[in-house]
């Protein structure tokens, strides 16, 4: 009877050791995958960065009359936004 309980204890210890080793391996692999994914995301430019690198703008300010004839000022402002492509 005593031999049977020792066998059960040994079996449960071996199961615990296997589970601990398995959890350590899974933890290491998961950490490696997350670090690889983070480094890949940091290397990839965002959509905003791509748009800033490819966009251009032109702003024109045209003053019709430099000396206004009345107390109010007059002028035209033209803003053209052009997309390339």
Describe this structure in words.
By secondary structure, the chain is mainly α. The protein has one domain. 59% of the residues lie in helices and 12% in strands. It has two helices and two strands. It has helices at residues 2-43, 47-54; strands spanning 58-62, 76-80. It has a two-stranded antiparallel sheet. The longest helix has 42 residues, at 2-43. It is rod-shaped and about 110 Å long.
Strand order of the largest sheet: 1-2
- Tell me roughly what share of residues is in helical segments: 55-70%
Shape: rod-shaped
Element pattern in H and E: HHEE
Distance between the termini: 84 Å
Q: What is the gyration radius calculated from CA atoms?
A: 36 Å
Strand count, sense and barrel status of the largest sheet are:
2 strands, antiparallel
Question: Structurally, how many domains make up the residues?
Answer: 1
Category from helices, strands and their pairing: mainly alpha
Strand runs, count: 2
- How many helices in DSSP terms? 2
- Mean residue pLDDT: 76
- Poorly predicted runs are none
Q: What is the percentage of strand-forming residues?
A: 5-15%
